[in-house]
Amino acid sequence: MAGVKIQKLCKTFWINGQEINALSDINLTIEDGTFVTLVGKSGSGKTTLLKLICGLEKSTRGNISFPPPDKSINCQPERVSIVFQEPRLMPWLTVEQNMAFPLIKEKNRERVAKTVNHYLDLLSLMEFKDAYPAQISGGMAQRTALGRTLCYDPDVILMDEPLGALDAFTRKKLQADLINIFLLQKKTIVFVTHDVDEAVLLGQRVVIFEAGKIVEHMPVNLGYPRNPLSRNFLNVKKKILSLIVGENFN
Ligand SMILES: Nc1ncnc2c1ncn2[C@@H]1O[C@H](COP(=O)(O)OP(=O)(O)OP(=O)(O)O)[C@@H](O)[C@H]1O
Q: Which residues are in coiled coils (predicted)?
């Protein structure tokens, strides 16, 4: 288990001599075992932040660390895993084999089978375990990608619009699955979405980005599962929309 501590983080890209400040002076502490959602307009730096956290990009300045709940344990950044908008499965492997892939070096194959079966069951994929990615729906493929990440058992799960390409019904089902998994496992989850409803439905805190900066940390003090039509839910949503769009939604 681990949280994420981000201090004075900056990322500058250069395109044809032009400087792009994708992230400027980001300070963000995500406590171990919490679910944080990131929202903001396109280009505000959300994906860049996830890429820096998991080491796919290097920061220009600043620091990222993974403080464990128990200070005596040293958490390595390789226990961070990312789920993208597209499932990125290996087409020549079945659902079960894709999920087992991160455990390929594990010698105790019985333990691997037990872990994979646990997540096949939890994600309602047991029936499709022998199917290849080309034979399953987008929602099943995304569940397989999530299962693969959970089999790896990371300390921190990063999710970049993982439900963005799904139809509304499948998206609702996967949101509910995600909440269940979070409540069962209490992993640290950092979830990027363009959908403010989804951000409030899932996050214990919504972090709002604007042009490479954090403009607000909005706590969501509501239990799970949440009712998107409840007054409290709508109030949080309105505040976030006002910050993003700059209009008053009252
Ligand atoms: N590899 C790169 N090279 C140059 N510029 C980049 C690169 N990656 C991102 N950027 C720039 O950094 C800024 C932030 O991009 P980023 O993808 O992090 O935003 P985002 O908030 O995730 O956007 P979206 O919601 O559309 O995915 C943008 O201006 C983008 O053009």
A: none
